Amino acid sequence: MNSSTSLPPSAQAQPETPRSGQSRLGVGDRIAELGRRALDPKGIVVVLLIVILLAIVVLNPSFAEPGSLMRFIQRVAPIAIVAIGQYFVIVSGEFDLSMGAVVTAQVMTVGHLVGVDESKTGPVLVVLIGIGILVGLINGLATTLLRVPSFIVTLGTMLIIHGAIMWWTGGVATSNPAENFRQIGRGGFEGIPLIDVMPFAVLILAAVILLAVWLSRRPFGRTLVAIGDNSAAATFAGARVWWTKTAAFVLSSLSATVAGVLLVGFAGVHPSVGQGYEFTAITAVVLGGVVLGGGRGTVLGALTGAFTLEALFTLLNFTAVPATMRDAIQGAIIIAAVAYSGVVFARRRRRGRSSVSTNPLTTSAETTPSTPPAGGDGAVRQ
After folding, report:
1. Is residue 379 classed exposed, middle or buried when 0-12, 13-18 and 19+ CB atoms within 10 A define those classes?
2. Angle 241-267/121-144 helices, nearest 10 degrees?
3. Do residues 334 and 283 make contact, with C-beta atoms less than 8 angstroms apart?
4. Which residues pair with 69 in a beta bridge?
5. How many C-alpha atoms does 294 have within 13 Å on its Cβ side?
6. Beta bridge partners of 196
7. CB–CB of 101/274 below 8 Å?
8. What per-residue string of b and e applies to 140-161 under the rule 16 or more CB within 10 Å gives b?
9. What are the domain boundaries of the chain?
10. Does the pLDDT of residue 234 top 80, yes or no?
11. Rg of the chain's alpha carbons, rounded to an integer?
């Protein structure tokens, strides 16, 4: 053998042992990482959703059929859409308590303006979009330019809208609107294999999810998270805080508008439709790992929270738990989710501080205040 091309025995044997050791360590690391993700606020809700769905299937095996699952998604669609809208507001560090009132306003507007005239469906949809944009602009501008806390602004907006709707309609239900309008929420494409019907509500939900994920990954979405993390730092970095937050409120009101249109289809026209939806949206968002106060969370987390919440209510129906317990359960979920997130993130901060203080390679130059951490204040939040 040519000595110029042969390797020393030590060099030939070295790669084998570390490679097998690395694979064993890699498997262990992957298992540990999966465990950490499962206990993360964003991961534990996925585990909870799977457990609840399995429990529903055990109690009612027909729930696992494709058609039943599709109808379940159709029921979740309004809640998921308002949760996605609420996500954009909460991740920026604000609240929107007017969502339920907006849903009610849109439902009652449809009942009084559309009637049985199918030709009015298109113009009324334009009116509903205009109402949603107007409410979002009022909430956003009052919060950012007038510097009134969003909790107060949206609480006032909720009361104003509710009072105006009760005055306009007399607080009574109307007959259902034209059938072509109701089909938006209750209809679908028929003759689909396996599922029989593909509801329009499911397709609308899919479109909303794609748009929301796309926005969250654009500079707009990243700026929202940065503002929720540290509004002052975002301002110094050149972010237009007032415009970005106002846009978030507009998205929230528009999502309530879409949910209202869907609810007309299978809930009818009644002043109680939409009542409490703002708290349902907040519960779903918090359950999905979005932190109250802003700066952490994802669209998919809020979506998972909405599915988990509706699955939980479905399970309670199968177990004959009174529907009157729904509000109490939502309150308990909010407290438990916020407390769990606080414990997890506090533990991470302590772990991060201890790792920095015990690292022997850390030099004084690396810990001086004159050298900021990469990524700014937002880099601390994971």
Report:
1. exposed
2. 140
3. yes
4. none
5. 25
6. 192
7. yes
8. bbbbbeeeeebeebbbbbbeeb
9. 42-316
10. yes
11. 25
Residue 3 has pLDDT above 60, yes or no: no
pLDDT at position 19 over 60 = no
State the CB neighbour count (10 A cutoff) for residue 8. 8
Give the integer Cα–Cα distance in Å for 241 and 321. Answer: 45
Beta strands, E only, the chain: 188-192, 196-199
Which of 1.10.3470, 2.60.40, 1.10.357, 2.40.50 would CATH assign to domain 42-316?
Answer: 1.10.3470
CA triple 263-329-166, angle to 5 deg: 40
- Average pLDDT for 155-167: 93
| Token pair belonging to 361 | 């390679």
> 3-state class of 275 per DSSP?
coil
Question: Which of helix, strand or coil describes residue 190?
Answer: strand
Q: What is the pLDDT of residue 331?
A: 82
H or E stretch including 251?
helix 241-267
Residue with tokens 């729930």: 63
